[in-house]
## 1
Amino acid sequence: MKRIFKLSFILLITIFVGMMSCGPALAVGEMVLSVEVIGNEQVKEEQILRAITNTRLGEPLDQQTVLKDQQAIMNLGYFALVEPYAEEFLGGLKVVFRVVENPVIKRFDIKGLERITTEEVLPFFLQKPGDVFNFVTMMNDLVMAQQYFNEHLGLLIPPFSGSAKEIDDLIAIDGDGVVTLQLYEARLGQIRYQGLEKTKEFVVAREMSLEEGEILDLNVLREDVQQIARLQLFEDISSRLQPTGETGVMDLIMEFKEGENRNLTFGVTYTPVDNTLLGSFGIMDPNLMGLGQKLSFNMEINPNSVFNFNFEFQEPWLGKSQTSLGLKLYSNHTLDLSSKDLSNGIFAGGEKADDKYTYDYNEKKTGLNLTLGRPLNRHLRVDTSFRMERVTLDPQNWVAASGNELKDDYPSTSLLGLKEEYWDNSLGAGLTYNKLLYTGAYTTGGYSANLGFNLHGGVFGGKYDYQRLYGEIKQFHSPFKNTTLGYRVMGGKLLGEIPDSSKLYLGGELSLRGYDIRHISGEQQALANFELRQRIPNVENLEAVLFYDVGTVDFEEYYQSYGVGFRYNIPILGQLRFDFGWTPEGGKPKFNFFFGEMF
């Protein structure tokens, strides 16, 4: 029958006290003239003697100093037993430490692990077969292995500390040198959600992939926390593990701080020149009744009696499935647009054919958009959309092209006859990959990308048959706690018979911030935006921004803008964005105001 060495501190101390009671305890106060170590075979005597620092030659014997040296020798890790005693020596005392070495290692036998393999654990062991087993080295190696697995594999193995019995249950070595390690991955007990006041518990629980009773994977937990953060419903999310009475089982406590998600906007502007009012109202709730649904509505009435409205509803989960549904209804006007290039014109003057004219027009788009989406995996999802849209182009005024001699030589063509109305229906599909990381309400790391296409006209109905291809990627990095670098690169391409109202535009608060809205248009587009975002310490909700924008519609001429801005989060109103953009052409800065980050 094999002899098993249990590394129990309680047993060792009991033996030591017994030995001291019949050895040096009878000779306390006599002079120590020599210190000796016996019983060691593999471990060098010099290494053991260096650990004896309290018992000193020429000083009276003291039990406490001997006890400390005994513990120091045990802390070397090589011994199953350290037995001190004293004997007479040249009229004084010799203190002898008898040691019993641990067996020489023959092999390691690791039991209990399910996901982590023995081959993954063994490289962390500094001890090899043929070495005297060292308990301290083994414990240190196991701690290093635990740190690695937690950081890289995310599997939480139990902490290597505790009572003597717990350690005895963890490590044993028999007389033949077989080291048996009883290891196991921790398991998840209960998941408890705290701090949810408005949000229903199932809204966050359905985003969790960790399940009670399974192996606790910290990488999966970290991703679950970020998946919930991507809902952008909470100011802060934290998680902590809490030991239970059951060995190897940890409860998970998820703590949430809900923000004021509901945003309300309204405004009234009076124009005394023509005695008119401009009014606007909007409301957005991304967590309708705590169900995780998004509802937004806004409307605007301007001095030209133009009524704009947008209504949007999104359901991220239909029933128990992960299929998402989105519905958008809208009717929007864009005023004073130019129909063609003003430098050439398209209509001849009424009296002089060399005079060329174009016209300004108002654009109205009314329609609905229906989307359905489904995740392909944790980060990748596919979305499809169908849009029905009615476009109205209503000419307003003749505009003389450059070089006209007679500015009022208007064409004989009636502007009313140039009015155009048509359907522009489309079917679209796209892929989105999202691994963005959030700290509270701020995007601080990770990346996302999307790629898709839209088919207009054809069997879907519409005056023009054309296709749109698009793509976008954005990435963030935070080198310091409150500093984030981010960029976005996007592009698009139109193919087929393309109406002016569907061309790709650059300029304004969503693209080139130093230029007016729709500064330049074309059938293709490339845009890059770069931002340095600095959150202000001790000033809650304030962020300063430096930015640079560059874009083109023909890959021959590039437009650039740069500037500064700041963001401020206001309860109910949400995040307000203020940007001041300049261009290389000079001039006054362009002021941009919008809600939310640009990207």
## 2
Amino acid sequence: MPHLFFRQVANVVLVVILPVVIVMALSVGAASAMVVRTWKSHDGVHSIDAEFVECKDGRVSLRKGDGDVISVPVSRLSAEDQAYVIEQTSLGPKKRTFTQLTQASNRLHAATDVLRLYRLFIEDESVPEAEREAAKKQLPIWKERADKQMVRVGIRWVTPAEANDQRLQARQLTDEAIRLIGAGQDNAAIDKCVKASRIDVDSILADFLQGLIYALVRCDAKLANQHLSECVSRDPRSIPALNNLALSEIRLRKYAQALAHWQTAIEVAPSSHQVIQNLGRLLELTKRGRVNIPPSLQRRFADLYAAAAVSANAGKFKDGTGWLYMGYYAPLTDSTDHEKAANSATSHTNTAIIKTGSGTGFVVKSGYVLTNRHVVAGHAAWSVVPSGNKSRELSASLVGVADGDDDDFAVIRCPELTAPPLRFVNETIVPRGTEVMVLGFPGMIPGRMPSLKSTRGTVAGLPDDSYNAYILDAIVNPGNSGGPVCDATGSVLGILYARTAVTEENYGLAVPHSRILQHLKKWIPDYDRLPPSAEVQKWTTVDGIASRSTVLIWIQDTESKPWTRPPAKSKQSETVAPFEDRWCMTCYGRGTVKCRDCQNGTVRAYRKEVKGRNPVSGQIFYWDVPIRVPCKVCHGTGFVRCPDCHHGIEKGLR
């Protein structure tokens, strides 16, 4: 799911809404200057003062004050520290290997993208000759796969027809599972989901459904956590999977992991009311002593809740509402019929809609915004936030979507938007080496709305057989999708749509404006291209010109309801939302807890037995023989009624 949806292109890991820096396999020496700084973990729980030594094979070596060197995976560092590593390693010698190329290829799903990656690697003269020769030997294999348009399904490369057959077969099984869930046949539904998950190893739907069954019906947090973890491993930016996984981790008292997953969900969709409700409920239960969270984590949960509530303009969480699981949000099945799907989604007032990601766009005519196809395609609705006015959110409708393989752009209409249009450059293709500025709304701070940022670079490569796009050496991140690429006059030469990652280097890809103009004339009534500016400006001036016309785009999707019945064990009325978890935090729906006065229903007692008799006096001697007798408190069951709930449901939520 989706800061948005960086298409997997070239050696990309173009992640659907990944707001943190992706660091590929690095193999470089340390920068010469050693500086002691504070390093933080990605979840903010741990920190250490240390020197940066080197980054090799995706791990950072840090020297502590006592001289000991520790090794930490780059992915476990905070976004700020990851950016620092990139900055430091860019100063050292560059080394790229065929092994790193293979690792990057394994993250791609289309053979055509892998072929582009290999060609880029082979053409790079900085790569050692032996490494390039190794890549050349594999090139014919990838050419053959690319000619057949093969795609990766798990670890297998198959034709598009085979992949589609597998997806359809898996979807048929999950549809049957949903019907079985509605009929109360949970065991049969789980069997269908297990088969579907094995057939379509890239989809999260089958494991997502199992996670809901185990969490809401079976009250088994461990198995729910297992399946929801699989969902997040397959789609790290799925908001429903992240939220539901965090709830299972709260049940399992894995509070640091839950915090990290909610942080990611808030980065993607700052206004998710389910996540905000869950954070507020957790803090309230902590205040009441029902949940025991370390003070340092409590502060971080409180900070995340405050930031998210302010960003979403949300009020106090609802004390009478339980934990809110989320249903499955996904792009629409038929991505070609966008307007019909959007109208269908918004016509049902009872249908839940959530922001599932964001992207960037820029004004090309008053009320018309150019953005990426992958930002808008297959989603239910869109809204536009003008630059400099975060509190104003304007509704938008889809005008047109390009259908060419390399034409990742579309136009949406927002009549209330008054920002001025940007101009396009005059040249069909600008020369290599042209200095550029890229603007966009990458997500950077958890719980905060993405803010406009600009980066500078040059045109490093021109459209050719490898990439039918400009290759830019400017820093770009998820959320930048759809942003304008401007030259020194403030005119647009292309629209950013993806980024590549060749070892430590990160390139942006942009569709040339010459391929866009013909579509604008077709989609926008009376479109008249403005003449480009001939005057070279200061870059601060270019930023000012472009920023007025660059907008944030929110993506919205509808929530599917796998079942409408309440959980099977529940005494709740049918008015309870199917994804509301009201089970007690103490007993998790059992209604009973272990008796503290006994051990497995019995207590220790003593029975007097004759030990002997005094032969002189005839006095009888007794001794106490230990025995186990049924507990009078629990009547031998080993369990007593839970004091915190009513038949398994939290008090106050009945």
